[in-house]
Amino acid sequence: MNICAGMGVNPVSGQIAVVGLDGTNEVRFEPNVKGRFVHVEVALVDPVTLTKTVKDLNPHLLPYTAQQLPQSERDKSIGDPRGIAWNAAGTRAYVTGMGSGNVVVLDAAGERAGLTSTVPVGEGPTGIVLDEARDRIYVLNKFGASISVVSLSGESELARVAFFDPSPPAIKAGR
Fold first, then answer.
1. What is the pLDDT of residue 108?
2. How far apart are CA 86 and CA 68, in angstroms?
3. Which residues fall within 8 angstroms of residue 2, CB to CB, at 6 or more apart?
4. At 72, is the secondary structure helix, strand, or coil?
5. 132 touches 152 (CB < 8 A)
6. Percent of the chain scored above 70 by pLDDT?
7. Global pTM?
8. Which of 95, 118, 120, 144 has the highest count of CB atoms within 10 angstroms of its CB?
9. C-alpha–C-alpha distance, residues 91 and 132, integer Å
10. pLDDT interval class at 29 (50, 70, 90)
11. Strand runs (DSSP E) across 11-163, as ranges?
12. Which residues, 6+ apart, have CB-to-CB distance to 151 below 8 Å?
């Protein structure tokens, strides 16, 4: 990965999970790139042995041979991952996608494991916190100036609560 955006530690195994982007910077010029310029990944690192495993967070796109996809396939994707939070059992990680406006669920091995392919939330989700005692996930939606309240067990948005965004109008309009 050449852009590491978020990190979380599995509370059971101690494994470090880093989410981010891997740009195909070694491919020169658009005729060669053919629209495939970045991969969204999670790197799982064992802090004792320093072994790592890198997984693509959009496995439905592999091996990246199609240049155009139907909207139904695009809706399964996560873009620009920013936040990651593990459950206390270390069996599930929840990753926010700022570019796609959703959350994906991973198992301890970094594979997709949600009830659905994605959990839609507000615009620009970045931060994420689990409240397992209340069966809730709270997601900070940076662009939408809101907090999404998500059911942990149902993996669906229950509410969206707006907050005051002090950004100047020119900045908000630019979003």
1. 96
2. 33
3. 20, 21, 22, 23, 25
4. helix
5. yes
6. 90
7. 0.89
8. 95
9. 13
10. low
11. 16-23, 38-45, 52-56, 81-86, 92-97, 102-107, 119-120, 125-131, 136-141, 146-151, 156-162
12. 135, 136, 137, 157, 158
Q: How many Cα atoms occupy the beta-carbon half-sphere of 16 within 13 Å? A: 12
Do the beta carbons of residue 97 and residue 117 sit within 8 Å?
no
Residue among 142, 149, 148 at smallest CA distance from 165: 142
> At 123, which amino acid appears?
E
Q: Is the pLDDT of residue 158 over 60?
A: yes
pLDDT band at 60 (very low <50, low <70, confident <90, very high): confident
Return all residues near 47 (Cβ < 8 A) that are at least 6 apart.
14, 15, 16
Structure tokens at 79: 């873009």
Let me know: does 90 contact 11? Beta carbons within 8 Å.
yes
Amino acid present at 30: E
